Amino acid sequence: MNGIRLTLLGLIVGIFILLSSVWMSSIRNAMAGPLNANQQDIVAVTPSPSPIQGAFGDEEIPPAGFASGVGSPNLLSTPIAGGTLLYFIPTDNDASATILYLYNTDSVSHTVALRGYSYNGVLGFSLNINIDALSFLRLSSDSIAAAPPPSWATPAPIITNFTDFTYIASLQLPEGVKVEGYTIFNPGTGTVDPRVDQGEIPLRFSTDPATLFLPSIRNNP
């Protein structure tokens, strides 16, 4: 008699365990369905383009033909005899721009080589700038606002669109050519307006690109 009771009790416990397992499995499947669907939605979402665009379009989209292959920092420019090779870090995304000043103190015209490199040292931007004797030029990585001040209108600034994919740039300055520069912030406009206070940060120039990434420490006199 006791054997029959134990057998029935075992059958009841087994059926209960089986039903519990089936029930828990159905709950897990029901919860996994919406979770997987949400994950697919997240993966499928494509971020909308930035609403801030300059005259050249979104600065955070690589320009046509931009170098993207594997490169080496050894591909950076090398000095040319009779001149000075300077490196600097431009800022040119959808809310900022870089301004450069070139001044030729020599009695003959010169050509300044401006180069920009991607994160892996591959050349991505190249521009040769002719500057007349005893003359002055401005360069801007964004377009200039309409009706600029006279000093910005003649001669008109040369547009040097680095985009946000130029990590470091170089200037090959012939003897007698000087340079200065700064970055500005122009969110919402994408243009450089000399009549508006857009905030300025001076550029740091160096003959050694590595020193651009080190802090500048000055001792008080």
Task: Produce the secondary structure layout.
Elements: H1 2-44, E1 83-88, E2 96-104, E3 110-117, E4 123-131, E5 136-140, E6 143-144, H2 150-153, E7 158-159, E8 168-174, E9 177-185, E10 191-192, E11 200-202
Parallel strand pairs: 5-7, 6-10
Antiparallel strand pairs: 1-8, 2-5, 2-9, 3-4, 3-8, 9-11
What does this molecule look like?
The chain has 221 residues and is an alpha+beta fold. It folds into two domains: 46 residues; 140 residues, Hypothetical Protein Tm1070, Chain: A, CATH 2.60.290. The chain contains two helices and eleven strands. The strands form three sheets. It has a five-stranded mixed β-sheet, with no helix packed on it. It starts with a helix and ends in a 19-residue tail after the last strand.
CATH architecture of the largest domain: Sandwich
| Dominant shape | elongated
CATH class of the largest domain: Mainly Beta
User: What do the pLDDT scores average to?
Assistant: 77
Ends: how far apart?
105 Å
According to CATH, the fold-level topology of the largest domain is Hypothetical Protein Tm1070, Chain: A
Number of strands: 11
CATH superfamily placement of the largest domain: TM1070-like
